[in-house]
């Protein structure tokens, strides 16, 4: 090989220039402000519509844990009755308020109230889940019962207005 054949006729590029030519931009394509605003508005509208469908109980918008006729039946059974569990958070707040004055009688009363509500909630949940399983077996004989009782009991411990998906119209309070 001769010296002339080995020469390339241009200077060697710097490392910075060589690397910049090899790299492909990982950033999104450049779009204008108006296009970004439109995309954000469309995405926001989709999120709002999906949230509304979820809160309505639309089957397609529900996560897997809430889908199916058996889960809908469990939600309806839970929402058809009142339970002490849905009042648990307000009771804890009252107990907290009663412990501030540091008056022994109020302290004892608040602790008794707290433990009584916990005990009653556990007993109520146990009885409710047994009845719920029996109703599920009658209505859906081939349904898998795994997790349904816990699903119902956990829903019953949430305050009614915070439950999601929302209770069916027949179980919501009339205003």
Written account of the structure:
The chain has 175 residues and is mostly helical. It has 2 domains: 32-61; 64-167, no CATH class. The protein has 7 helices and no strands. It has helices at 3-6, 15-22, 33-56, 69-79, 88-99, 104-139, 148-156. It is elongated and about 95 Å long. The model has no long low-confidence stretch (mean pLDDT 87).
Based on the model shown, name its key terms.
single chain, 0% strand, 175 residues, mainly alpha
Broad structural category? mainly alpha
In DSSP terms (H or I, runs of 4 or more residues), the helix count works out at: 7
Question: Low-confidence stretches at least 5 residues in length (pLDDT < 50)?
Answer: none
Quaternary form: single chain
Helical fraction: 55-70%
- Total number of strands: 0
Question: What's the alpha carbon Rg, rounded to whole Å?
Answer: 31 Å
Question: What is the general shape?
Answer: elongated
Distance between the termini: 95 Å
Mean pLDDT: 87
**Percent of residues in beta strands:** under 5%
**Major beta sheet summary:** none
The tally of domains stands at: 2
List SSEs in N-to-C order: HHHHHHH
